[in-house]
Amino acid sequence: MRSYLDLVVPVKRLDRAKSRLVGAADGGIGDRRAHADLVVALALDTITAAAAADGVGDVVVVTSDPMLTAVLRAEGIRCVPEAEPGLNEAYRHGASLLGRHVGALQADLPALRSEELAAAIAAADGKRAFVPDRQGTGTTLLIAAPGEPLDPRFGVGSAAAHRSSGAIELIGDWPTVRCDVDTEADLSVAAGLGLGPRTEQRFRLSA
Ligand SMILES: Nc1nc2c(ncn2[C@@H]2O[C@H](COP(=O)(O)OP(=O)(O)OP(=O)(O)O)[C@@H](O)[C@H]2O)c(=O)[nH]1
Ligand SMILES: C=C(OP(=O)(O)O)C(=O)O
């Protein structure tokens, strides 16, 4: 019997997150509220799809942002503050609060479909594995082997770092798992795959 995979999803403070997308939201470059709303929409669409995927157990968001924490908790999503700054630190902290089979999911996958995430998790088949981003250099999903530490190596060139950590590269027909959005061009690609409802609304407002 396969164990459920618990997922950690870290998100930076909203005033620092998604800096390459500043100006993509409704009011343009000076509209900080609209930018924060876009980051929240990306995270909520990602987490909602992830939590509904077959094979996923608990999901914990690691963030020290008060507004994001309030919004996510109102949606019934578990949030914990960072224990120390940094992306890999946030992943390790979240993983320490979860069960024996843990994974790391990026928070900027607004086209994510539950079935595609479930297929990627099933393909890992209990081994340490990762899904590279659309460009092949970053990582959108890292899965530890059951009972093993997450050992996250996110950051520039994380696909190579995860490969050299012994993780199997998962390449399959799951474009929405690979489509992280760092730029407006990425957002357009995600829109082509079909955005989640909250991001769709923000993207329409800005179009
Ligand atoms: N909790 C937490 N999350 C982080 C931290 N650094 C990055 N993240 C999250 O990890 C993901 C990838 O982060 P980055 O690529 O560094 O930054 P970004 O917010 O996506 O975009 P840019 O500002 O354009 O680089 C995003 O979902 C971030 O919110 C951190 O120090 N703490
Ligand atoms: C941190 C990463 O993602 P990005 O900078 O693309 O958000 C990564 O792929 O390891």
UniProtKB/TrEMBL annotation:
Alphabetically ordered keywords of this record: GTP-binding, Nucleotide-binding, Nucleotidyltransferase, Transferase
Coiled-coil residue spans: none
Cell inner membrane listed as a keyword: no
Highest taxon listed in the record's lineage: Bacteria
Example GO molecular function: phospholactate guanylyltransferase activity
Reactions catalysed: phosphoenolpyruvate + GTP + H(+) = enolpyruvoyl-2-diphospho-5'-guanosine + diphosphate
Main EC class the enzyme belongs to: transferase
EC number: 2.7.7.105
Residues where phosphoenolpyruvate binds: 139, 155, 158
Involved pathway(s): Cofactor biosynthesis; coenzyme F420 biosynthesis
GO biological process terms held by the UniProt record: F420-0 metabolic process
Database matches in Pfam families: CofC (PF01983)
Keyword set includes Transferase: yes
Family designation: Belongs to the CofC family.
Chain's role: Guanylyltransferase that catalyzes the activation of phosphoenolpyruvate (PEP) as enolpyruvoyl-2-diphospho-5'-guanosine, via the condensation of PEP with GTP. It is involved in the biosynthesis of coenzyme F420, a hydride carrier cofactor.
UniProt-recorded name of the protein: Phosphoenolpyruvate guanylyltransferase
